[in-house]
Amino acid sequence: MIAAVAFTACAAVLCLAAVLAMLGLAQARMSGSEGLLRDGLAPGRQAPRWSLADQDGNVRTSPPVGPTLQAVIFADHSLKSFPSVVDGLRDLLAAGDDVEIVLLLQRPNTIAAPVLRELGLPGVAVLTGSPALYARYNVRVGPFLIFVDAAGLVRASSLVNYAWQVAKLRQLAGLPAGVGQP
Asked: pLDDT means per 10 residues in the chain (182 residues)?
């Protein structure tokens, strides 16, 4: 009887150790720079479809109805901390090409639109999404930028910290489907 109890206790401890080891490996894989490389959606994949009202009550959809491309920025509180990304977005707006830029928030934020105006980005629509929508895009950190075409396909996707990264993603998004993309 004592041997059976000891065996059961030992087996339970070993099972618990195995579960904790697997959780530790998963945590290590998801954290750090290697984990961030897997964030977002790969080019060529279908982007989530949604329809949300912006700060002015206008309904915006993804995939975009009018423009050729839609730049979806995931940057709840991080955009103001990256002035170079703001410069890149300003350049994108100033280029005048057919790109709709939307800032997708995880939660309601009443100061997002005024801050964008203060940063010189009045043409950026502010939308309130949800943590679940962020998860469907596989985005955990920001600022993150995903270009979606009118067919709903991801054309370019990456974490952005500098203006040149915004410009490079725009360039990649403009390439014909499959060119320069894995």
From this structure: 78 72 55 55 91 91 84 81 88 85 90 86 89 90 91 92 92 70 48
Per-domain boundaries in the chain: 2-30, 41-174
Burial class of residue 28 in the structure, from the number of CB atoms within 10 Å of its CB (0-12 exposed, 13-18 middle, 19+ buried): exposed
Domain 41-174 CATH assignment equals 3.40.30.10 = yes
Long-range pairs, 170-178, Cβ under 8 A, ≥24? 170/71, 170/92, 170/95, 170/99, 172/43, 172/147, 173/69, 173/147, 173/149, 174/69, 177/44, 177/153, 178/44
Entry pTM:
0.75
Q: What distance in Å separates the CA atoms of residue 150 and residue 98, rounded to the nearest whole number?
A: 11
